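Quick start: what a row looks like.
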Amino acid sequence: MQSLVSEVSFSGLRPVVHLALHLIVPGVVALTWYRERWFRAWLWLLAGWLIDLDHLLADPVYAPERCSIGFHALHTASAILAYGLLTVPKRTRLLGLGLLIHIGLDALDCWMMH
């Protein structure tokens, strides 16, 4: 019974926790590895959130129990490979890292759904 209660209460919080992690994790990465220019790095890492624009092509746009990975165009294996390649040139590294962090957090959310 206790696990059912915690599962029900967490299921309502899951979207809030998910969105909070999309802000917090890039911030921790920026503060840890880019301390001198953490704010600028954090903004570039947050730019990874832009891939959620592909949600606008889905019907419905928001489905709380839908896993983004593999469903949305910018959340596919080929897109993820491209994001990995963006981490190679120094000029696009932060954006690529932000995109990969975003994908990782979305994958975590999919895992938490099941």
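That is the whole record. The chain has one domain: 2-113. DSSP finds four helices and no strands in the chain.
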